[in-house]
Design a protein that fits this description.
about 200 residues; alpha+beta; elongated
Length: about 200
Amino acid sequence: MFGCLVAGRLVQTDPVRVSGDKFVFQLADYESVNHVVVFMLGTEPFPDGTGGAVYFCFPDPDPGSGGAPVWQLLGFITNHKPSAIFKISGLQAGEARGAHPFGLVAASPRPTAAQVGVSVEALDQLAQQTPVSGASVSTVDSFVLFSQRMLESLYNFVGSFSVTQAQMSPSPQETFIPSSCVLRWYDNFKRRLAQNPNFWRT
């Protein structure tokens, strides 16, 4: 049902089912891992009205804790959002947020191992939970940058064919668009993108 991927490692598709609706992936040498991807395999959807809360568990580095497991909520996956990438490097034990659904059943005895857990929960319950800060990977900045570069490329490409009215020759099969129209569209799109990077979804 679920898969877990770390760059440079084999994909894991065989989590341990620690209870009826809870699954755990083992993550060896977690301190060398920056990001982890959790995704649905597409073989079995979540039951209607449910999704998966994704947790990260690692040994508490505080010497006084005895390496007790620290569970932190990273985020969620659902049938409508079947995959997510999370940043786990730099997470601090002190950022643990409240209770978690795994108890001690998935605690790893190895000090260099961590776990990624998926707990199937009601969507209403997921909406009330707050992931730990710093775990989400924002794609807004990269999307905005890509969009701006794409717009610039289009404008430069179109501009390379520009001619003045004096240089134009009759060509009934061609449609001519004033470059000022393209520039105005370009400026409007950049402005709207800066105001709301997701405006194009509506």
